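Structure record:
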Amino acid sequence: MFITKKHISRRTMLQGMGAAISLPFLEAMVPAQTPQRQTAASPKSRLACIEVVHGSAGSTEWGTNEALLVPRKEGRDFDFGMIVKPLEPLKDYTTIVSMTDCAQADPLTAEEVGADHFRSAAVFLTASHPKQTLGSDVYCGTSIDQIYAQKFGQDTPVPSIQFCTENEDASGSCGWMYSCVYMNTISWSSPTTPLPMTLNPRLGFEQMFGAGGSSEDRATRRRLSKSVLDGITHNVARLMKDLDAQDRNRLNSYLDNVREIERRIQAIEKYNASNPTREAPTAPVGVPDSWDEHAKLMLDLIALGFAAETTRIATLKLGRDTSNRVFPESGSTTPFHSASHHQDVPTSILDLAKINRYHIGLLAYFMDKLKNTPDGAGNLLDHSLVYYGSAMANSNVHGHKRVPAILAGHASGAVKGNLHVRCKEGTPQANILLSMMQKLGVDLEYVGDSTGTLAI
């Protein structure tokens, strides 16, 4: 007896008015009697890179001695200090890499001394020293997210997405003879091509789910307050008939998540449109006043894009160098940039550590979201690699030694997790980037100033 089984393409799209909705992984995408890994439906590793600014309290000498960030023990028997405590429930998916340096963010000439804030973002994923210029002749390096996108992102509807939570005009000088371009993005598709980052959640949503139809269709849909799902109801009903109970539940859960994020964006837009006393009156109408809400919304959008493989590659810039935003959820009322200049006073270092821990909590939020999203024979966190860190370390002295670096996820089995890797003094942060690329299947000899790979 031969077993037959209908299957649908992994690239199936549900088309509606001004919308194109990709599907999450379903068992119906696997042909009968065929191992999933041998099919086009087999989940491929996703890559997310998240940059935080102003380094870490745990990168100071005092913070290192107190194990605020860097565990005292190496290997798998390590403890979580104050800053990384939110990740403790996700230890099996967490790899802490400590003591690496980001030398390419250091000044190379006398004219560059003091400009560390204006270089750091550009160095984070490129490990390349940016050219000091105010003109259009910006130059840095190709970032690892774009190296991965060029190899494994071209068969998805959106090759990569670039999000941020703070931004300014990307023209002119931001300080020390550096173009604002360097501060406003962490993604470079080539050494001369920085990629803009999306601040507005509405634009991010439309980028992933509003590709179908015309711009007029999308504008009409928004004006009528219709959901992207309204135009695909009949397509969904027809598809459901051919799915088993498990696939129907998975598809319903995915579509519910799409609708919930859309509702949140609509509620933000409605509130902001009728509220003349916004905290950030110049921000787009889709940006919430609450930074916490904004950050989580961007993380949720990335998770949703990963679930349906609308995209496999995402970057998120969690802030902007020299920002003095206050994060009340952290328990600190000190403006961020001011807190980062702690003068090596232990009580002030601990105040910065509260902000660092709050930001790590957002990483834990994202990891938990991925872990609880089914994907093939596992979950999204099994099939993702998330890089969280900064090109700055001890921000009080604008230092780039002992930069914070955390990897999350198993990268489809290539990264084991539950590990603290303590590097030798002087190890380039670029070695993390090269190791990531090789674990993700990109054959590179070097990234930036890398000198080798790490046992992660």
Q: What stands out?
A: The chain has a mean pLDDT of 90. The radius of gyration is 22 Å.
